[in-house]
Please model this.
Amino acid sequence: MPIASPFAALPGLCSLCGGWGRGALCTRCRSDAALTRPRCSRCAIALPAAQTLCGACSTDPPPFERTITALDYAAPWDGLIRRFKFRAQPELATLFAGLLRAALHDEPAPDLALPAPLAEARLRERGFNQAWEVARRTARALGCPADARLLLRPRDTAHQVTLPHEQRFANVRGAFAVEPRRYREVAGRSIALVDDVLTTGATAAEMARTLLAAGAASVHLWVLARTPAPGSA
Model:
């Protein structure tokens, strides 16, 4: 029987608000993270309670079948995600994987979890792939395999955040590829793609199309945070 760490119950500073608590989040911030809201089942944008699918996904559905998100990409969580991603704080991956696992509830485990890959130059610049750090921890909690070398990003592209909405889809077109010697590991399998933030869905859609073209049976998307619709509260 595993023995709990004697340090697990010691008080410390909350990663989000800086107040005192136990574990990575204080009680108040953990409660805030656990709040759920109605979302589009396809792209996870927030919706009125009576709806299950947003207008965009009804008329032009993305290639991924379902999106699960833990948070809205808004204050104060957006600042914590930026710290994780851009300020070399990979230790936050355990916290984020826990929040994502909680958001998944009783979702069935996929055959395989894959992180959104980084191009080699971006990986060297950042020092780690934040999506992989979350993906491997979440997959371990679910008991499914995860792989960081099956879906590749052989072509570097401009940062999506610097581009207007209409240019983002063209920017990532053809940017991803399945490892050529491993197509059989994709064929017929249900795959969860793991990323940090979903905004327009351009990157996620291109990754999903790449996997479906390689024979994947289905692709779901797991993201830490979903950017709210413009003008939403």
